[in-house]
Automatic annotation (TrEMBL):
InterPro entries: Dihydroneopterin_aldolase (IPR006156), FolB_dom (IPR006157), GTP-CH-I_C/QueF (IPR043133), Hppk (IPR000550), Hppk_sf (IPR035907). Pathway: Cofactor biosynthesis; tetrahydrofolate biosynthesis; 2-amino-4-hydroxy-6-hydroxymethyl-7,8-dihydropteridine diphosphate from 7,8-dihydroneopterin triphosphate: step 3/4; Cofactor biosynthesis; tetrahydrofolate biosynthesis; 2-amino-4-hydroxy-6-hydroxymethyl-7,8-dihydropteridine diphosphate from 7,8-dihydroneopterin triphosphate: step 4/4. Keywords: ATP-binding, Folate biosynthesis, Kinase, Lyase, Nucleotide-binding, Transferase. It comes from Nesterenkonia halotolerans. It holds the Pfam family HPPK. Its EC number is 4.1.2.25, 2.7.6.3. Belongs to the DHNA family. Residues 255-266 form the 7,8-dihydro-6-hydroxymethylpterin-pyrophosphokinase domain. This is Bifunctional folate synthesis protein. Gene3D superfamilies: 3.30.1130.10, 7,8-Dihydro-6-hydroxymethylpterin-pyrophosphokinase HPPK. Residues 126-142 have a biased composition (Basic and acidic residues).
């Protein structure tokens, strides 16, 4: 049987074009120009070949969205940097990817000579993803675990294949304190996921939905995972179901209504995902004090979209109503 390193299954996406503002010169950043990207992704899609199911392979739709976001996003001086960034971000987006080869074309590069194209190619494998390059902040893995008191044994570090993600948990039905503790324990027990840090519980007022529902208990945790964003979503929904969450209006669920348990993926490294089922970073996290405030309790230096979470929390309309849950008031726990 071939090893993972022998596999040669490939997904190719060729000629994705968008306007970006990358370049050394001021006029390039100001005026923009077209960039074209080719992506060749190495993975094992034998399971998809047998099942004919999208969940068993990597979605080229999501890869295309990630590429477009990088082209149109924050500018780089060099297309070498853009290619390197894209190769790493694509690998981070799905743990099933073994390698990514990215070619960035700059057909309107500012050259006085007559030419057809300028391009660079970067090939990266999972071995190129160091722990500090998969969405970590300045803390080491050991620092994060020591501050949380949870996670892997002493001295264990985030592995090359792991990506750090931030999850937000909420509950306002039943014994919410016990539910959140049980959910974190359940997440910690899952293969391919380690809980690195957890905030104190926050008591918050419901935002949207029926006005007469109970207050929520909310918590933010940081995890390290080898699962893809889609696999992580499936896992969190399994944990919700274990705690009697019935999703969908057909099951009587009210939009923004009461929940036995809600788990949202807020970030997944620095990946961007946009599908009908999943958007990362969470599109409303930057306005939700009930997420931002406990997140700052867990990590005062955390950032979201390049902005300190503490700054976003100060601007969120509901932040003033977020309080340390009474469960912590007499235990010495303080944000």
């Amino acid at each position: 049987m071939p090893s993972r390193s022998d596999l040669s299954d490939t997904i190719r996406l060729t000629g994705l074009t968008a306007t970006g503002h990358h370049g050394v010169f001021d006029f390039e950043k100001r005026e923009g120009q077209p960039f074209r990207v080719d992506a060749e992704l190495t993975l094992d899609f034998r399971a998809a070949g047998r099942s004919d199911e999208l969940q068993d392979t990597v979605s080229y739709v999501e890869i295309a969205e990630l590429i477009e976001a990088a082209i149109t996003g924050e500018p780089f001086d060099l297309i070498e940097a853009l290619a390197d960034h894209l190769a790493r971000e694509i690998l981070r987006s799905d743990a099933r990817l073994l390698a990514a080869e990215i070619t960035v074309h700059k057909p309107q590069a500012p050259l006085p000579q007559s030419f057809q194209d300028v391009s660079v190619t970067a090939r990266r494998t999972r071995a190129d993803l160091s722990p500090r390059s998969v969405g970590e902040d300045a803390r080491t893995s050991e620092d994060a675990e020591a501050s949380a008191g949870v996670g892997a044994p002493e001295g264990a570090a985030t592995t090359d294949a792991e990506v750090r993600a931030v999850l937000a948990l909420g509950s306002n039905l039943g014994d919410s304190t016990a539910t959140l503790a049980s959910a974190v324990t359940s997440l910690r027990s899952r293969a391919g996921l380690r809980v690195l840090a957890a905030s104190p519980l926050a008591r918050t007022r419901p935002v949207g939905g029926p006005p007469d529902q109970p207050d929520f208990l909310n918590q933010v945790i940081e995890v390290a995972t080898t699962k893809s964003p889609q696999e992580l979503l499936a896992l969190t929904q399994q944990v919700e179901a274990e705690h009697h969450r019935a999703r969908g209006a057909e099951n009587g669920e009210i939009h923004w209504g009461p929940r036995t348990l809600d788990i949202d993926i807020i970030t997944y490294g620095s990946a961007r995902v946009s599908t009908p089922a999943l958007q990362i970073p969470h599109p409303r996290a930057a306005q939700r004090g009930f997420v931002l405030v406990p997140w700052t309790w867990m990590d005062p230096q955390a950032t979201l979209g390049g902005v300190f979470v503490a700054e976003l929390a100060a601007q969120a309309a509901d932040s003033a109503t977020v309080e340390l849950a009474e469960e912590h008031l007499n235990t010495g726990v303080r944000p």
